[in-house]
């Protein structure tokens, strides 16, 4: 890469992009391709493609063991898993959740005519703030959904204490948190149930997929019925259901990634600390730090941009990086409460969400995973450091062009 010494060196202003190929956030990890293809051949030979085949059953056992729970119910995706878990838990009326989350968390409720009540988050942890939950509880409240954002566990004990005292059910959206721990325990066994995502962009993927994990046998059995149209044996429908089943090919990919999970996490960890070192001297940037006493999958490299200190806003920096083919992402922008249809239902929600409002303008995610090496991380850091040095002129040029 040609060093970026002046604004004219940046691709946004006519310079050559730092990368020829786009560097994505969440580019899929593949694992051992040969092992996956052997499983696919076996699936084709068996001609058992869906309906809880042997690979789905094995995947469920392996995920339950990984999460330290009794039961895992694999699903076609995590959104359906959230919907089924919410219905199986008896959610109705209102459910409290953060707005600082992927929109699927809120959609899974509203799709079932359950009202999402948005709660503010802790500005350091980025997870739901238990101190704000109590004031949002009404006679219509039936549950709380906490989201382990970036794999950072919520304040689980505080949430569970509120739920016990107020007679509410607790579901954790653990889409980011497979292989992460809270007080030495793997995420998965907290609350009434937790939901994992195995979407293609997750560090462990099954192409597309999700799962609900729990220690509640009756809840697991309800969800197994619900994901398969309510069938309990052939021609015997005993429960309202839908089609939420994971297929065998997805499970085969999930198993293959499980076998490479420790290597993937090691790569993520290496990249995280390379970013930490490379960005340490940049004013106005704070790299999200994980608790060294806990295990993490290091799936996300999250940076908060303080525009006043950095001299550039988060959006200006994202625009600059995109021109260099570094496809940094604004997470979670602009917050569920500002997305349709939620904004039309709750037009004044932002008044109760000051920390969410701030975070949604400051947070960005940088590329990591097995498609990103330390060389690429070093170049991204070089671009950001150079942008910091030239920030007044860069900001002026971007605003003039806008």
Give structural notes.
The chain is of the alpha/beta class and 402 residues long. It folds into 2 domains: 122 residues, Aspartate Aminotransferase, domain 1, CATH 3.90.1150.10; 227 residues, Type I PLP-dependent aspartate aminotransferase-like (Major domain) (Aspartate Aminotransferase, domain 2). The chain has a 7-stranded mixed sheet, with helices on both faces. Strands 11-12-15-14 form a 4-stranded antiparallel sheet. Helix 1 runs antiparallel to helix 8, helix 2 crosses helix 8 and helix 9 runs parallel beside helix 14. The chain starts with 22 loop residues before the first strand and ends with a helix. The relative contact order is 0.17. The mean pLDDT is 97.
Structure summary:
With 402 residues, the protein is α/β, with parallel strands linked by helices. 39% of the residues lie in helices and 15% in strands.
Text of the CATH class of the largest domain: Alpha Beta
What is the helix content?
Answer: 25-40%
CATH superfamily of the largest domain: Type I PLP-dependent aspartate aminotransferase-like (Major domain)
Count the domains: 2
What value does the Rg take, in angstroms? 22 Å
Q: Which word captures the global form?
A: globular
Query: How many strand segments?
Result: 15
- Spatial strand arrangement across the major sheet: 2-10-9-6-5-3-4
CATH fold group of the largest domain: Aspartate Aminotransferase, domain 2
Report low-confidence residues grouped into runs of 5 or more.
none
Q: Give the name of the CATH architecture of the largest domain.
A: 3-Layer(aba) Sandwich
Q: What letter string, H or E per element, gives the SSE order?
A: EHHEHEHEHEHEEEEEHHHEEHHEEHHEHH
The separation of the N and C termini measures 27 Å
Biggest β-sheet: count, sense, barrel?
Answer: 7 strands, mixed
Number of helices: 15
Q: How much of the polypeptide forms β-strand, as a percent range?
A: 5-15%
Structural class assignment:
alpha/beta
Mean pLDDT: 97
């Amino acid at each position: 890469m040609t060093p970026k010494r002046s604004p004219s060196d940046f691709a946004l202003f006519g310079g050559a992009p730092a990368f020829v190929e786009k560097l994505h956030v969440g580019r899929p990890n593949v694992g051992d391709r040969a092992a996956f293809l052997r499983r696919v051949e076996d699936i084709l030979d068996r001609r058992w493609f869906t309906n809880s085949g042997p690979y789905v059953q094995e995947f469920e056992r392996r995920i339950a063991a990984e999460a330290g729970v009794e039961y895992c119910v694999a699903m076609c995706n995590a959104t359906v898993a959230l919907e089924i878990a919410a219905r199986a838990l008896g959610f109705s009326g209102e459910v409290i959740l953060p707005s600082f989350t992927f929109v699927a968390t809120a959609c899974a409720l509203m799709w079932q005519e359950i009202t999402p009540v948005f709660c503010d988050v802790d500005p350091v942890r980025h997870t739901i703030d238990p101190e704000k939950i109590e004031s949002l509880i009404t006679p219509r409240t039936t549950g709380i959904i906490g989201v382990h954002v970036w794999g950072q566990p919520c304040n689980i004990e505080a949430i569970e204490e509120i739920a016990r005292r107020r007679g509410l059910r607790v579901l954790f959206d653990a889409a980011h948190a497979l292989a992460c721990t809270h007080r030495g325990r793997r995420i998965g066994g907290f609350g009434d149930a937790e939901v994992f995502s195995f979407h293609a962009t997750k560090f462990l993927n099954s192409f597309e997929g999700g799962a609900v994990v729990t220690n509640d046998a009756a809840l697991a059995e309800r969800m197994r019925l619900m994901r398969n149209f309510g069938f309990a044996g052939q021609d015997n429908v005993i429960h309202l259901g839908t089609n939420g089943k994971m297929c065998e090919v997805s499970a085969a990919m999930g198993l293959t990634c499980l076998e490479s999970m420790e290597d993937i996490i090691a790569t993520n960890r290496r990249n995280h600390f390379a970013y930490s070192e490379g960005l340490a001297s940049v004013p106005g940037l704070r790299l999200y730090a994980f608790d060294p006493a806990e295990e993490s999958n290091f799936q996300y490299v999250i940076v908060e941009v303080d525009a006043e200190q950095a001299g550039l806003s988060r959006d200006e920096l994202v625009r600059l990086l995109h021109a260099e083919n570094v496809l940094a992402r604004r997470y979670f922008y602009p917050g569920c409460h500002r997305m349709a249809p939620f904004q039309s239902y709750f037009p004044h929600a932002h008044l109760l969400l000051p920390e969410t409002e701030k975070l949604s303008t400051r947070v960005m995610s940088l590329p990591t995973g097995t498609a990103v090496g330390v060389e690429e991380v070093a170049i991204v850091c070089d671009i950001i450091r150079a942008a910091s040095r030239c920030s007044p002129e860069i900001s002026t040029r971007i605003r003039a062009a806008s």
